[in-house]
Design a protein that fits this description.
The protein is of the alpha/beta class. It has helices at 7-10, 46-65, 68-84, 86-97, 101-119, 160-171, 186-199, 213-221, 234-247, 269-281, 298-314, 333-348, 377-380, 396-404, 419-426, 465-469; strands spanning 13-14, 20-21, 26-30, 37-42, 127-130, 137-145, 148-152, 175-179, 206-208, 225-231, 250-254, 259-263, 291-297, 352-355, 359-360, 363-364, 367-370, 387-393, 408-409, 411-415, 433-436, 452-453, 456-457, 471-479. It folds into 2 domains: 2-255 and 455-475, Aldehyde Dehydrogenase, Chain A, domain 1 (3-Layer(aba) Sandwich); 259-436, Aldehyde Dehydrogenase, Chain A, domain 2, CATH 3.40.309.10. It has 16 helices and 24 strands. It binds nicotinamide-adenine-dinucleotide. Nicotinamide-adenine-dinucleotide is lined by residues 152-156, 161, 179, 181-182, 212-213, 216-217, 220, 231-233, 236, 239-240, 254-257, 288, 382, 384, 410, 451, 455.
Length: 487
Amino acid sequence: MRALMESERWNHRFYPGEWKTAQGDRLAVTEPATGEVLASIGIARSDDVAAAGMRASQAQTAWAATSFEQRAATLREAARLLAQNAGYFIEWNIRECGSVRFKAEWEVNTCVEQLHMAAAMPMQANGELFPSSVPGRTNVWRRVPLGVVGVISPWNFPLLLSLRSIAPALALGNAVLLKPSEFSSFTGGLLLARLFEMAGVPAGVFQVLPGYADTGVALVRDPRVKMIAFTGSTAVGRSIAEECGRMLKKCSLELGGNNALIVCGDADIEAASSSGAWGAFMHQGQICMQTGRHIVHRSVAQAYSRKLKERAERLVCGNPWTDQVSLGPLINAQQRDRVHGLVTAALDQGASVLTGGRYENLFYRPTVLTDVTPDMSVFKDEIFGPVAPVVIFDEIDEAIALVNSSDYGLAVGIHTRDSMAGYEWAGRLHCGMVHINDQTVNNEFQVPFGGMGASGYGGRYGGPANFDEFTERQWVSLSNSPAQHPF
Ligand code: NAD
C-alpha cells in the first residue's frame, strides 16, 4: 500500500470516486507530537458534495443490484488488503492522530474483523413471510438499502468509527459518502478511499470528502443523502439532528459521554484501580467511553485514589512514533487548554491534585483529582483528556443518583464482588452500556453499541443492529390475480 499510496496520488486531492485535485482550499495534515506538517490534501467544497451525491445515487443502483457474493467478496478483499498493509495504517494513525502503538494496532485489527463481519451480512435472511387475510395473497417484508448514506466521523478512532458504518452500509447495498474529521483526514479518509478502490468497490459507490464543518453541513443538507451516520460531539450531533428533522432524514448519532466507574466497598481495589487507570488514561482519555467520573465508596476511597496515583505515575508520555510510551499527545492545543481549564477550575473550587495537572506542549500528564464535588465542571462535563476525578459515596442509591445526574448516558463500570447486585443496579442506570467488574471503555463489534440521552440518538451499531441501521423495511404483497374492489 505504501507504494500504491505515493504522495502524487493524494497531494492536494480528495476522492469523489476518483483522485481529484481540489479547486478550493487545502487541509494541512499535522503531527500533534511535533507540529510537523505531514501532508496537504484537498477540501471538498459544497459543489463537490453536490456532485458526489449525484454520482453516488447513480452508482448505488447498480451496486445494490450486484450479487450478494460480489459484495461479500469485495469486503473480504478490503479486509485482506487492510491486514496486509496494517503497518502503513498504523504508522499514519500514530503520526496524524497521536495514537500510541498498541491502540493503533488494536484499531486496525478490529477493523479487519469489522470488514469480515460486514462481508457475512449480505447472505443473511433478508425478511419474513406473513400470512394474508386476502385469499391467494402472500405478504413479504424485506430489507431494501437506504440509498446514499453520509458518514461523518471524529478523529479519535478515525478508522473504526468510520468503518463501523461504511462496511455494513456497503454490504447492504448502499453507497457511502464519508466526511472524515479535519484532524484525521488522511488516516480516516484518504487511506480508506485507497483501500476500497483497491478492493474493487465501483467508482462512485464510496467517496471521501474531506473538509471542515461546512463540508459536513453540505453533506447533511444534500437531498440525495438519505441517512446521516454521525459520531462526534453532542453539540454538533444536536445541530445535525435539527437539520435532519427538518428534512425528515434518518440520522443516527453516537455522541459524547461522561462515564462513571462505581467502586463499591467490597471491590478488589487492585483490579478496580487498574480499571480506573485504563478507562481514564488510555489514548490520553480521548475516548467517548472514557472513565471520567470515579465514584468510590468512602471505605475504600483513599486506597483507590492512592493506587490510581501510583499507576498514573508509572505511565510514560511522549512521542508515540519515536518512543515507547503509554500516552501520546492530545490532538491539539484547543483540546489541551479545555482539559487544563477543567482541572484548574476544579482546583480553584477546592479539589486537590494527587498527581499530574501539568503539561508540556501537547503532552498532558495523567492526573488524579480528589476532594471533587458533583457540582464541579470536571465531574459534570465530558473531559476527553487524561484526568480522573474521584468522588465519594456512602450508599449505593447515592452512587446511582450521581450517575443518573448526567444528561449523558453512554457507559458505566461497576466494581463489586456481588455481580448479581451489580446486574440489578445496572437496570436502574440511564446508560446504554454497563460493565460489571470492568471499566467503561469496551467495544465488541458483534454487540449492539450505543448511548442514551445526550450520548446517543436514533440507533445502535454492531451485530444485528447494523441491519436496522442501514436498511429500510418494505412490505410487498403478491397476488396471482388482480384484486377486485367495490369501486
Ligand atoms: P466534533 O463533533 O467536533 O466533530 C465530528 C465531525 O463532525 C467532524 O468530522 C467535524 O468536521 C464534523 N462537523 C463539525 N461540525 C459540523 C456540522 N455543523 N455539521 C456537520 N458536520 C460537522 O467531534 P470531535 O471533536 O471530532 O470528536 C470528539 C467527540 O466525539 C467527543 O464528544 C466524543 O465523546 C465523541 N465521540 C463519540 C463516540 C461514540 O461512539 N459515542 C465515539 C468517538 C467520539
